[in-house]
Design goal:
Blueprint lengths: L5 H24 L3 H13 L2 H12 L4 H11 L4 H13 L3 H6 L1 H10 L5 E10 H15 L3 E6 L6 H15 L3 E7 L10 H7 L3 E5 L16 E4 L3 E5 L18 E2 L1 E6 L2 H17 L17 E8 L7 H12 L3 E5 L7 H12 L3 E7 L5 H10 L1 H4 L4 E5 L3 E2 L3 E4 L3 E5 L5 H6 L2 E7 L1 H16 L2 E3 L1 H5 L3 H11 L6
Parallel strand pairs: 2-3, 3-4, 7-13, 10-11, 11-12
Antiparallel strand pairs: 1-8, 1-9, 2-5, 5-6, 6-8, 9-16, 10-14, 12-17, 14-15, 15-16
Helix pairs in contact: 1-2, 1-3, 2-3, 7-12, 8-9, 12-13, 14-19
Length: 478
């Protein structure tokens, strides 16, 4: 096309303005300076239309404002009923516990809209062999409601068992609803939502690809809530991959899930119904659910986090927990891409004399994430923070333990995607029995793991170092 063509000049001018506008938007709205710089460069360096289009497709959280508006009007109609219940709970908290965890409570109270609630019983479930039978039995015993949210819901043998149980629940009049992430559902050739609907279960997609390209902003939560009284959460999706005893499956993984009986299940139901309304625009139940009865001595708090929150809720809770540690910090996670604030918090804890132990999988299902992690570990190893690798099969467990008295478990990994881009659900736990069980699990994993030394990290061949360093450049997006 002739560059003197008036139409070409108009198109070029509009493209340039679009590119400048997009770069300015990134400059003003991106909190992370490196991310802002990267997107400004993309907008200005690539062909104007290409760079700007990439930014608006992948660099902008387009649901942030919409989700905030929805959340403000949709912290559902039962909010007053729930708040009254929570106020009673807080007044019953033992004074000794309040004093012991005052600093942690102050952080969590400030950045969440849910209080710590007592009267819970937490059961640790190892792998699908323990978790799935308990979940299916709970669905079969449901009398009023079954709410299930999963990032992945495969239609393999495990998925079929859940579809059958959910269909049977719906057939006997139980309000059975299933929410599956729009990207995670595509892990199956025959996506679960369609099969569930045919089986009579109300099923919905969370941000399906038919409504726009949202590679980020995925619903990574794993929730099952039965009759507002029993909840399940943790790291497990609905998939045969979590059957760790099946040695014939090369993709099997080890993981933990948690059954929570008591008032904390109400918080899980809140989160599910908020997500359901977001995905379907359907109103919540018009009548309050029954208040769950006390079932144990554990104090818990549900932490929902996502790109619709002004503050990075879990990020601040983790930093706050680490800063209050007195003797020991233990971290187990499948994906570990710590950004500068987390590295600084862990290093400062080590400087205070706190023992910091981190266990990662030696074999990752996402090699590029493991490469980037290897490029970051020296910053911890040089300050005597212990990092160990667990042998295969792949370990998907996510857990943070502080001083043997506090735990965070759930769906979040310690990477920017979980802490900033995904919708996640985690659980704070104050309970000696549960945390002792998690400490035993950590100790057993540590015994079979191999520590990595700073000398070993430095001795990687140059091609491996270059590969890892290249992967590190993409940490904000991995």
């Amino acid at each position: 096309m002739n560059i003197a063509d008036p139409l070409w000049l108009v198109v070029a001018g509009l493209s340039g303005l679009f590119s400048l506008y997009s770069a300015g938007h990134a400059l003003l709205n991106k909190r992370n300076p490196r991310s802002a710089l990267g997107w400004v460069a993309v907008c200005l360096a690539l062909h104007p239309a290409a760079g700007a289009i990439l930014y608006w497709l992948f660099g902008v959280n387009r649901i942030h404002t919409r989700a905030q508006r929805w959340q403000q009007r949709g912290q559902w109609a039962l909010d007053q009923h729930i708040r009254e219940f929570y106020q009673v709970q807080r007044t019953e908290m033992p004074a000794g516990l309040k004093n012991d965890v005052a600093a942690l409570l102050a952080v969590s109270d400030r950045v969440t809209h849910r209080p710590l609630v007592g009267g819970n019983r937490v059961t640790i479930l190892h792998n699908g062999e323990e978790a799935y039978p308990a979940m299916l039995a709970a669905i079969q015993a449901a009398r009023r409601s079954v709410y299930l949210c999963s990032y992945i819901f495969n239609t393999d043998d495990t998925g079929k068992k859940f579809i059958d149980a959910l269909s049977a629940a719906a057939a006997r009049g139980v309000d059975a609803r299933v929410l599956v992430d729009g990207l995670g559902a595509l892990y199956s050739l025959s996506p679960a939502p369609g099969r569930l609907r045919k089986a009579g279960v109300r099923a919905a997609w969370f941000l399906p690809m038919t409504k726009g390209i949202h590679i980020n902003l995925r619903n990574h939560r794993k929730l099952l809530v039965i009759d507002t009284a029993t909840g399940f959460t943790g790291g497990m999706n609905i998939s045969d991959r979590h059957l760790a005893m099946d040695t014939t499956n090369p993709r099997r993984m080890n993981d933990l899930h948690f059954q929570v009986d008591g008032p904390a299940a109400m918080q899980m139901e809140e989160v599910f119904l908020e997500d359901w309304r977001f995905a379907t625009d359907e109103a919540e139940p018009s009548s309050p659910p029954p208040r769950p009865a006390a079932a144990g001595d554990a104090w818990c708090r549900g932490i929902s986090d996502g790109p619709n929150h002004d503050s990075e809720t879990l990020h601040w809770i983790i930093i706050g927990a680490i800063s209050t540690a007195r003797s020991r910090i233990r971290i187990m996670t499948p994906y570990f891409l710590p950004e500068s604030p987390l590295i600084s918090a862990l290093t400062a804890a080590a400087f205070r004399g706190v023992t910091v132990e981190i266990i990662l999988p030696r074999q990752s299902d996402l090699p590029h994430v493991a490469w980037a992690a290897q490029a970051l570990l020296w910053q911890l190893l040089q300050h005597d923070i212990e990092v160990s690798y667990q042998p295969p099969p792949f370990v998907h467990t996510k857990c943070l333990l502080i001083d043997g008295r506090y735990a965070i478990v759930g769906s979040s990994n310690l990477d920017p995607r979980s802490l900033r881009l995904n919708f996640e659900f985690n659980l704070e736990i104050y309970d000696d029995r549960t945390i002792a069980g998690l400490e035993r699990h950590f100790e057993a994993a540590r015994r079979r793991s191999r520590p990595i030394t700073l000398a070993e990290a430095d001795a990687r061949p140059l091609p491996i170092k270059l590969r890892d360093a290249t992967a590190k450049l993409f940490v904000p997006y991995l």
